[in-house]
Amino acid sequence: MHKSKKGLEIILFAVAAVLAVLFFFPVYFSLISAFKSNGEILRNAMALPSSLYLESFKYLLTKTDFPKAMLNSLILTTVSILFMVLIIPMAAYAIERTGKKWTNFVYIYYLSGMMIPFQVYMIPLFKEMRTFGFYGTLTAPILIYISGSVGMGVLLYTSFIKGIPAEIEEAASIDGCSRIRTFWQIVFPLLGPCTASMVVLQGLGIWNDFLMPSLVLHSNNRTMIVEIFKFVGELASQWDMVFAGTRI
Amino acid sequence: MPNANTLGVTTNTKAAAKKKTWLSFSVLFILPSFILYTLFVIYPTLNSFNLSFTNWDGVSDEIHYIGFDNFVEMFHSERVYNALKNTVILSVALVILENILAIILAMLVDQVRWFKNLLRSIFYFPVLLSGIVMGFVWAIIFNYNFGVISQLLDRIGLSAYKIDWLGNPNYALIAILITTVWKGAGYYMIIYLAGLQGIPPELHEAAAIDGASRWQQFRHITFPLLAGAMTVCVMLSMIGALKIFDQIAVMTDGGPGFATETLTYIVYKVGFGELRQGYGTALSLVLFILILIVSLIQVKLLRKREVQM
């Protein structure tokens, strides 16, 4: 009995190890490839780099728009996230605590947006951005990201606010605290865990997004992911650049 | 501060004033998100109904209404049927494969004794990487001439079995499928893992004392109790499958021919590649309706299951 349990454990571990190798391989492969020249990748994709080839990194940082693209990605992500965690908890709090018919309607109105995939309204949105004159600037993706996250965000925050006892706020209001101050000084800090998961989820999504920035940004104002995409098309598949780009 | 002027008033008007500040406060708090959301999600969505009746190219200022022509063309287009077929194949295959693999991974990470955390990180890591970047990596792995798989087969003398994964219409969709499963499974694994850890160990102990085999324990305890996690995962993977884009853009660009075009991809290709945005929006409405139907069916199934339990 004892022996068979040990055997099973070893088998389970072996299976897990094999799967882990399979899962990790593409990551390992892109890692080693970042330090190889284009020729070396094409000759021998699997081998470890023969020498530490850093030319691709040098080229990327000095001769291309890559640093600017990185900065763009960073600005886009931080600004969007900042506005998201200001606006969405505010709305969620008002919806959850007011509890009137019209706030219920707003809630359903927000949630219905979760069912609409970006591709459905992408073309009219693109047209709208041109009309407003946001097209090509960083403002456009920021506005689109914030608006697009409202449905999911309000769902997350309202369910979280439900779990916060209303007595805390009543106590604050008896002490003469205004609604706005109650929210910012008492409720908002309590939403920390929810905000953290919002930041991670949305931040990752925005940082890695390709479709949207490739549509609404000018070619001299790309984000990092769009810039990486460009290396394959325009520079006739400079794989060394691609891999180096992905490692930064 | 809105409350400051209510201080010295009699109780009755004070209550009314309080109600009023409460209302203005709610409106104030909801307004910013309401404006943005209406302007940049709801309005363009409604506008797509309007645009779908035009032959707008996306660039010119002139927009001509052409009635139902876009929809008529769509229903006669082989390409659209093919994209619909690909979308359905990908969605069904993805939902099944991702969920099975995710359950296996979750059980392994839950049961294995050594390197638990390392294993979990390795399985989860692909989720964090961008679809574009990982699409590139897999494009090289699958490459016919110098790809990793081809080089491996060359080395062990099986060159005859090399497959042009991305260039052959029969295999390109499979390559996309493998990439997507690899990228997504870790995400669902985390949800299943949470579900597994919520199952009280006493249940398994009691079953073991009653002489239930490991398979019976899985079949009658673990699996039914994972139902909650499963509903979430199936729904998320289904939505994810309908929206799949990055991998296709990088690995095949919808090709070879139209072999890997999905509905989401065709909307993008027609709208921005071929500059037929009127037709593109008409197609996007079909996608919208498809997603609506799928969600409604899932909600219905979900309810049914809840009744049973």
TrEMBL record, chain A:
The keyword Electron transport does not apply. InterPro entries: MetI-like, MetI-like_sf. Coiled coil: none annotated. Residues 70-248 form the ABC transmembrane type-1 domain. Keywords: Cell membrane, Membrane, Transmembrane, Transmembrane helix, Transport. SUPFAM superfamilies: MetI-like. The keyword Transcription does not apply. It is found in: Cell membrane. It is a multi-pass membrane protein. The chain crosses the membrane at residues 12-35, 73-95, 107-126, 138-160. Belongs to the binding-protein-dependent transport system permease family. This is Carbohydrate ABC transporter permease. The lineage of its organism: Bacteria, Bacillati, Bacillota, Bacilli, Bacillales.
From TrEMBL, chain B:
It is found in: Cell membrane. It holds the Pfam family BPD_transp_1. Residues 84-298 form the ABC transmembrane type-1 domain. The keyword Transmembrane helix applies. It is a multi-pass membrane protein. The chain crosses the membrane at residues 21-43, 88-109, 121-144, 171-194, 223-245, 279-299. It comes from the Bacteria. Belongs to the binding-protein-dependent transport system permease family. This is Sugar ABC transporter permease.
